[in-house]
Amino acid sequence: MSNKIQPAFVTFTGVDRSDIIPSLLDLSERYPIEWGVLVDPEQEDNNLFPTLEERLKVQSSGLCLSAHICGIPAAEIVQGKNPNYLQLSGFSRLQINHSRDGSTEEQISNAHRFASSMGMRAALQCQGDFPDEPRADWLYDVSFGLGTKPTSWPPMGPRSTFCGYSGGLSPETIESTFSALPLTESDNKQFWVDMESGVRTDGWLDVDKCEQVCKLIFG
Question: Domains plus CATH for the chain?
Answer without folding.
Answer: 9-218 (3.20.20.70)
